[in-house]
Structure formats: C-alpha cells, structure tokens
C-alpha cells in the first residue's frame, strides 16, 4: 500500500487516534514493500537529531510529519519542505558528480542492481567510479527538457497527479542529470530552507505554491547563465610596455619608499637653504673691500720668494736667549710673548712692495697667476708659529704658506716650494742654497731709517758675480785692471755668462712688460737699477750688449768706476740692493740702505 492511500485512509477514519502500536504495525507492513527503500534514503538524507526530536533543518520545529518521514512511516508522509530539501540534495549530488567528471573530461555512469535501484556507493561523496564519454550540450538540453518534475498542490495532498515517494527516486535515477555550472566544489550539501510554522501565516511566494517548479527554475536559470556567460578577458600588457622593478616600485611605492623620499626632500631643502645662505655671505664678502683677501697664486705659475723669520721680523732678543740659554728657554720665551707683535726686519719693506705689485697686477688682470708668492721659511719650532702668525696678520701681510722645520735646515724644502729667491739672515744657510743652485742672499738692515717709496718696487743689482758670472773678476784679481780692460774690449760682443740673480731680473722684466702692454710704462710699480763699479768707457759696452742679448731691460744703469755706492743708493732708496762684496754692503748699510749679500764668485774665496 502506498503512502498516498494510507494518508487518504487515515483522513477518512475520523476519531481514530494514532498510537505507538499502530505506528509500529504499519511500519513492519511497509518494510516488506519497495517503498521502504525510499524511506531509508530519505532518513539518511534528512539525518534528524533523534535526541532533540527535530530534523536537521535548524529552527524547524519537531512535528509528526517530519517524525514520520524519519521513522519510515507512510501514513502521512514528509512535509513539503522535507520533500524540497531531499530533491535539492539529489540535484546537488548530481551536479557535483558532473562537475568532477567535466574536470577530468569523463562522465561516470550510475550503477544499478538487478532490480533497477541505484547502488549506494553512487551517492557517496567519495565515489570514484569509471566514466564514459561525456554527453554533448545539445543532448543534455534535450534530455533535461524531457524531465518532468512533479508538482504538488497546495490545496490537496492526495492529488492523483503527484508522484509517489517510491516513484520519485526511480524517475530521477532513470533520467540523466542536467549539467550544472561548476560554481563551487563545496563538499557539504546545501542547507535546507527554513519553513514557517504550521499555524503561521503563509507567504504568497512561488516556492510555497509550486516548490518543484521553483527548484527546476533555479536549475534552468543557472544553466542558462552558464551558457550565456562569456569568458572574462583580461587586458594583457604588451612586452614593449613592460616595466622594470624600479619603475614599478616608483609607481607603487611602499611606506619605506615614501619615508625615504620625504627624507631626501628634506635634505634637499636644507642644502638649498645652506647654498642660499652661503651665496648671500659670498656676495656680502665680495662687496666689502676691507674684508676681501685675494687667493694666493698657484705655485707653478707664481714667483716664489722664500723669507726667513729673522729676515722678515726683528728677532734679535730671541736669538740672544737661544745662543746664551739654550733652546728650551728660547721656546719658553716665545710662548710667553706669543701675543707680542714682532717689529719689522730688513726684508719687511721689500715684502710689502712685492704685495703692492700683486695688487696692481690684479687690477689690470683679475685672473692673473703670474704673481709674487711669499713663503715664510724658518727653522723655528712649530710652537713659535703662533707668534709669527699673529705678527703677519697684524701688519696685513698676505703670507699664506709657512714652513717651520723645528731646528732642521729648511734648505731641503726650497726646491719643493719652487723657490725663485731665498732671503735669510743666516749666511751659512744662504751659502747652502747657492750651492744648490738657488738664488739666495743674506739680509742686512740699514743703520739709519730712511723713507721708502710705497707705490713702487725698487731693486738695485751689482753687475759681476750677481747678474753676470765672475769671469771678469778673475782677470782683474789675477792680472790687474789693464788686462781686464783689454779683455773686455776684445770680447765686447761676446755676452757674459749669467750670474745667480739673473733669473730674478728676468722675472721682474716679465712683470714689467705686463704693465707696458696696458700703457703703464711711466706708472709701472717696478723699477730696476744696475749699480756697478765698472767704467762705462772701457767695459760698460759689454754689459749693456749682454742685457740686450738676454732680452732684458734695465731702467737705470749707474757706472761708478770704483767710487763708493752708498751715496748713490741713498738717492735711489731701493727696497733691496744685491752685491757680492762685503765692503760695498757695509758702505751702503751706513747710509741706511737695506742690503743683501750674495756669497758667490772669487771674492768669497779671497775674503776667506
């Protein structure tokens, strides 16, 4: 007896109450029939919680209809919600199997036993049965169109058009399952929908009016959406527009990159501020003449004049302490008086005149490098350098290079400094420099104070053994003046050999020509003198022709024919006078002329 006939029979028997014995009797009677298989499958699909006496649908109240379906009773049958849930579980299982089959391009064939029922393993979640050729889309659509899902009426549960519970799984198993879209491979079945209570108000929706058609519509909509859905096309970047890692990082910077960029911008702003500040300071420095200090010339282009500390300043008192009490007392004296300014020495006025020439050259040639460069070279200790620096700055001397050897002879550094002229108060060191081939002279201060010209450098030279060689002195000393005059007349057109100060005269002449090029001959800040004991008539012609052959011009030539040079030098008032004989040096020194002895030639041997 089917469940539909049982329900009709129970409805017609009014007043009959259900009891536990009747339910057990009906259950044993129906277990022998084929409908028991469907009840078993429904019970496994629903999986009610018997301890709570309610179905697996959360929130669905325990009722006799659900209980009867779970226990296999066919008197009333399951409620409409349970039927929809069972149907959806079957559809979900078929869709999952088709999805797995499509992934491997094979479709499995459900196995049936001899009576036509599905084997239990076919509905297992771990089923891995063999598969055959997958049907085409057209075949699936034609077979799906022939599938007729049963409709249940909302007014009567005993309609003859509804399918019985045992016919439903057989029809579903006989019909091929419609293809379902591979939406998700979630192994859990869909959660059954909640139903309204029996006495509650019924919602006027399609699900309650025709649940089977509603489920079939869902499957059809999903299939249609899958067929009509176009594959999403992703825009691909051509290889020509590929960017490197650094470029992509610049487009999509990280927080560390942003912090780094912020730090770089902050540093740039600080650097810009510093540059603007120093630019303003530089402009102010350049606009202030009193604060302007010209940069020293490059040594390879400059005319280097090395001056010792005793020649530049008067250090007689310190020298006396050194000779009498020793080096330690001398250093202690200098440290104690390092803030005491030293008085000018014999080379002081000469150095000031050299700086005036540099100033005039910079006015005419702002980028001129062929200038005088003064170097303070001394064997004093470095601790004495503080007093020397203070004295140099006090007098405004532009001396930037110092050489303090600490008791060692500074002669070894002269060539390293590219020295053109070395002036010192120590005759022994001057002799060493002469032997090294460097123009040198020992400085002597004048006995009287005379006025010197501050706007013109005046330099006086002796002829023989100073500008020229000592070959004529050899003849005069060895053979007398008569032989000397004859020799000079015989070799009048033969230039004399050069002496130790010839190079310095060339340097002065080169600078003079720079002023002449600017039409400054009459206002030239350099003037040279030749003061010699030769006679102009007998031996003067050879001297002038030699200077002409060298390409040098002398501003004034004074031939004294053996007369004293002191009175003439007083009229000239040179800043320095170079001579090789000490009696001329002493004669000029008495008149207040600053002299420089050149220890060169035969006269030095005869004096010794």
UniProtKB/TrEMBL annotation:
Q: Where is this region: Disordered?
A: 1-43, 126-250
Q: Name one Pfam family in it.
A: 5-nucleotidase
Domain of life, source organism: Eukaryota
Skewed-composition ranges (Pro residues): 176-195
Q: Where is the composition biased (Basic and acidic residues)?
A: 11-35, 218-235
Check the record and name the InterPro entries matching this protein. Answer: 5-nucleotidase
Biased composition regions of type Low complexity, renumbered to the chain:
149-175
Query: Which GO-annotated molecular functions does the record name?
Result: 5'-nucleotidase activity; magnesium ion binding; nucleotide binding
For this record, an example GO cellular component is: cytosol
Q: Where is the signal peptide?
A: none
- Name this protein carries in UniProt: 5'-nucleotidase, cytosolic IB
Taxonomy, top ranks, is: Eukaryota, Metazoa, Chordata, Craniata, Vertebrata
The protein's gene is named NT5C1B
